[in-house]
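Researcher: Sequence recovery benchmark, item below. Answer with residues only.
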């Protein structure tokens, strides 16, 4: 089984990102299993934890979880034209200690969403920049920007047919990368 971790970078209960991720998870083919990886519990990164203060158990658990993944799908909103702080914190936590990044070489894909028309363009590209530095190959085409997301979800949190079709193609490309 190929294990794909799904990291939802919005911590809000029932966020649009979580709803999109819930719709995407079942689109992976047979032979793939998805696992939601939580990031909200991680203490803010402090490099002193790698020294005198000792590594928090949450860091070790998170690093071990990511290490077991074959690939990672990030589903993110945009905060102030960038990624949420919780996501940047998680990326930093799992990239250390130096030379032991658990992100290294893991295929990745990004879906950004927003109620606005720009669809998280800024967060998508800022995340791509970080993932490039972490040596994570990222799906290049199609790019997944889900604008006006609130208009694409029904009252039960299900995406409309056209959006699901687009995301199925996106997942298919991600599977090719993996």
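Model:
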């Amino acid at each position: 089984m190929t294990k794909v971790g799904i990291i939802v970078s919005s911590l809000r209960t029932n966020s649009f990102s979580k709803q999109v991720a819930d719709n995407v998870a079942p689109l992976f083919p047979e032979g793939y299993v998805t696992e939601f990886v939580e990031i909200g519990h991680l203490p803010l990164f402090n490099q002193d934890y790698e020294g005198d203060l000792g590594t928090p158990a949450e860091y070790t658990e998170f690093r071990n979880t990511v290490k077991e993944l074959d690939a990672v799908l990030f589903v993110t909103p945009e905060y102030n034209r960038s990624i949420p702080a919780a996501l940047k914190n998680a990326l930093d936590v799992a990239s250390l200690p130096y030379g032991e990044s658990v992100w290294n070489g893991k295929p990745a894909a990004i879906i950004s969403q927003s109620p606005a028309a720009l669809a998280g363009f800024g967060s998508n590209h800022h995340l791509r920049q970080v993932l490039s530095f972490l040596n994570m190959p990222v799906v290049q085409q199609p790019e997944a920007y889900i604008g006006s997301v609130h208009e694409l979800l029904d009252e039960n949190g299900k995406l409309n047919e056209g959006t699901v079709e687009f995301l199925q193609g996106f997942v298919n490309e991600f599977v090719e990368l993996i």
